[in-house]
Amino acid sequence: MSLLKSIPKIDRFINNKEFKGFSVSLITKISKDIITRLRNDILDKKVNSINEKDLIQTVLKEYADLTSPSLQSVINATGIIVHTNLGRSLINEESFNKAMKVATSYNNLEYDLEQGKRGERYSHIVKTLQALTGCEDAIVVNNNASAVFLILNTFSQNKEAVVSRGELVEIGGSFRVPEVMSQSGAILKEIGTTNKTHPRDYENAVNENTSILMKVHKSNYTIEGFTSEVPYEEVVKIAKEKNVIDYYDMGSGHMIDLPFNLDQVEPSILKIMQYKPSLLSFSGDKLLGSVQAGIIIGKKELIAKIKKNQLLRMLRVDKITLALLEDNLTSYLENNLDDIPTLKMLNTSITELEKRACLLKESIEDLCSCEVIQTQTLIGGGTTPNKKIPTVALSISYKDYKANRIEKLLRAQNLIIRIENDKVLIDFRSIKENQVLQIANIIRKVFN
To answer: pTM, whole model, 2 decimals?
Structure first.
């Protein structure tokens, strides 16, 4: 009982000078919670003494944990440019500053400045996408999964959507095409086999209840060996002959040709548009190198029907997304491709990467053992599955530390590396040029 009497009174405790400048209401709430736990621990005989200084430090720690931002910037030294766990594509700082000006002021999100009346939020990116791709119309939702769901719900509710068995994918976060189709109201019509699908499979599948011939990007995997699939241009041709909609869920669509012959793995949006498709959808924050969004382009009459779907209001994007996307698409239109960080990283030469790796090596080799090596990496984000691209990394080691221990120490400083063959690699394919000195400082801090 004497220990219970020693518990500090809340009104006195929260007035401690250590709490000066902090939110009184939050300090009070945390203090009450901690003192309640202390009282219970005393009753359960888990505590046999009380130290008020320790209680104060516990309150301050919990306060810091609650008020410190959980979402933080990190340095991506994994070599994976479109890293799903690290926020995917980077946004150009100048583009972000433009969007900030729009977001921090009233704007014409849904106001037509010429007509002086209500406008449409999607109009801000339509003209740019039309000029870039030759599409008739376009619309943007919050991600490509939403785009898939919205298209299927609009055109295939209680109707059949034809998909090759080899394309019934599951991507990150348990996003499964068959389940999405089911929840959208579409009736899945599987054709072909896992490894082989032929044009006749599409042709024979069409009946009076068919609405869409759908092709799906094989994110994160490839099928090799005794295989065949129907090119999208052939799907478009069959759909036109059968008077149904063709739709390509491109997943990570890219606007222009990519280096390292990546277009042999995934054709560009501009290439696909040559076939005059009915509908395409693709992500904004993958190889396009912009903000998270699901972009739908295609025939005007089909986009018009999508706009009438009540689900669109739940899936629509806000002013910041539209401002960023418009600016990034304009960079494509003006051929200012260095303004797209994803493309800039992808196109950086091996010579330049080696130069940066050597600069870091010179800065830290007095502290740890390091070696510049040429290796390979993946682009990430489910793009160009199993297609590796060349890169340069700095392999580092320190005393008798295991790779996992070094990784943990660097991660504590928000430097995210990768381990390959039990070696710590700092991969320069995903590191910005202005981050080299910052990485050197982190390593010196950790190993000192």
So the answer is: 0.90
